[in-house]
Amino acid sequence: MSLPAGQDAVPQAGSSIAAGSSALASAGSGGRLLLASSGATEQLARRLADAVQPGDAILLEGPIGAGKTHFARALIGALQRAAGQAPEEVPSPSFTLVQTYRAGSREVWHADLHRLSGPEEIGELGLDLAFETAICLVEWPDRLGDLAPRDALRLHLEPGAHEESRVATLTATGPRGRALADVATA
Ligand SMILES: Nc1ncnc2c1ncn2[C@@H]1O[C@H](COP(=O)(O)OP(=O)(O)OP(=O)(O)O)[C@@H](O)[C@H]1O
Ligand SMILES: [Mg+2]
What we know:
Layout: E1 8-9, H1 15-20, E2 24-26, E3 32-35, H2 38-49, E4 57-61, H3 68-82, E5 98-103, E6 106-112, H4 120-125, H5 127-133, E7 135-139, E8 152-159, E9 166-173, H6 175-185
Parallel strand pairs: 4-7, 4-8, 6-7
Antiparallel strand pairs: 1-9, 2-3, 3-9, 5-6, 8-9
Helix pairs in contact: 2-3
This protein binds adenosine-5'-triphosphate and magnesium ion.
Magnesium ion is lined by residues 68-69, 92, 112, 139.
């Protein structure tokens, strides 16, 4: 797989994913996972929830309806359950742009930047500071431009062969992004 400069290919997904679960399967090339159902997307989110730390960013790419919010909802729910809380409702932040959550002592930001009016709004929302202190899940991260966090996991979702299947492509930039990518494909 050819990647833009500065980005690292995620290690070959390999057969361990298929062996570990019938729902998550390797799509065959490095850094790609076949998510056969919405449950498989939730499983990937739960796996990453065990590994994310404050200051981590997961940038969720892909077209409308790809499953970005579905993934974020599952990850936030898993973080809150792990903290001993009842999972909150997680609405799509497509109109509010940002929703914030607590999971124990950790802050989680869920952003949807599709309707961002301009890059200056990123500072107004406080997203630049949140990248340093919170767990950040960002839909439509292309809107961040130069303000995108340097160290992140990019998770690109696109429709698969069936209505419920999605192809996830993982790309890491920086050490934390790589650590999360390793967890996703382990
Ligand atoms: N494998 C799958 N992974 C994720 N979602 C799936 C999958 N299969 C079906 N779905 C369904 O697809 C829909 C995805 O909607 P979702 O709101 O998550 O999309 P989105 O990528 O956030 O879109 P938008 O860009 O409009 O915010 C949900 O209804 C979900 O149940
Ligand atoms: Mg969404």
